[in-house]
Amino acid sequence: MEKIILASSSLRRKRILESLNIPFKSVSPEIDEKTAFTKNIELSVKKCAELKVKSVMENNKAKWIAGFDTVVELKNEILGKPRNRYEAKTMLKKLSGVTHKVHTGVSLACSYKISTDICTTFVTFNKMTEKEIEFYLNTGEWNGVAGAYRIQERGSFYVNSIKGSYSNVVGLPISLFYVMLCRYNFPINSI
Amino acid sequence: MEKIILASSSLRRKRILESLNIPFKSVSPEIDEKTAFTKNIELSVKKCAELKVKSVMENNKAKWIAGFDTVVELKNEILGKPRNRYEAKTMLKKLSGVTHKVHTGVSLACSYKISTDICTTFVTFNKMTEKEIEFYLNTGEWNGVAGAYRIQERGSFYVNSIKGSYSNVVGLPISLFYVMLCRYNFPINSI
Fold first, then answer.
1. What ipTM goes with this model?
2. What pLDDT, on a 0 to 100 scale, did the predictor assign at position A63?
3. Do A135 and B189 touch (CB under 8 A)?
4. How far apart are CA A127 and CA A97, in angstroms?
5. Dist. CA A25–CA A13, nearest whole Å
6. How far is the C-alpha of B14 from the C-alpha of B24, rounded, in Å?
7. What is the average pLDDT across B105-133?
8. Are A160 and B175 inside 8 Å of each other by CB?
9. Distance (Å) from the alpha carbon of A141 to chain B's nearest alpha carbon
10. CA distance linking residue A155 with residue B74, whole number of Å
11. Which of A95, B34, B134, B145 is 20 to 30 Å apart from A154, CA to CA?
């Protein structure tokens, strides 16, 4: 069975590929994400996903390599990973009661030919009270995630609705990735 | 810590409550779902969720009891659990390339006071080829689920986008359930 090299060490991306029965091996890319970022957010996440694939490709002769980069955008501002509880609180206050976007750049190399695309999901939060924000901060879920919430855990309490792909918000837009794999004739029918 | 009685034996609902850290005990309700169903689909799922709660309430003095009922609707027709591969194939062909609705009725009893609501999500499938339908039927995921697909597994390959609550499609609309718990002052802040 053909294996995909996942150019990511993200646990949630590994969990998604496992749930889909897609054979993979995870390899951490070595890139400076800052070099990918420009004023155009959508171009930047695509570039970043592609850099991850290229970084792994340098030391790996695998046929299939996939890279992903996910960012949370609110009114043209990127909400990264909060460095502390105070930053997480500021982000949650911004997200409360409004709609933001989550973009994931998807880059797939097949025999050194690279194809890259982007998936965007709109996420609408309910209005959060001060007490709810404090409760959520206490869960610690904000730690290590862009936008300071995890939709796959208790962050979902406050997500009123989404429009687009759910798995994109978790970090790997399944349907787009599937279409890209099919386009390159990945033997999906034998997984 | 207060525990909720989940009037359901659905594994996916249990997994959702676990992921949210909500303490619960699962009890199978004994109802004849057919008695709840009328021409009005939305009223029917609410009634069915409520009947599940009432059924468990008869033999259980717990303060908190929650019941859920999920159906897949396509053009005023309910797609139930396929009884065999042929029925599953017919359903997948109907879902291919179009948008359908998933409704979940949510019923919550707090000290014998019952409140019931409904959540609806729109799910849009990509057009599936004959080969894709055969592949998906071979995964066996269609077995035992309304609409013959599991969005949380490989059914996600074909889901182009959703509008509304994702967890609703899995069987338990988290945000609505959370709001109902808060309304009854469930001690969510101490979970």
1. 0.94
2. 96
3. yes
4. 4
5. 11
6. 8
7. 97
8. yes
9. 11
10. 30
11. B145
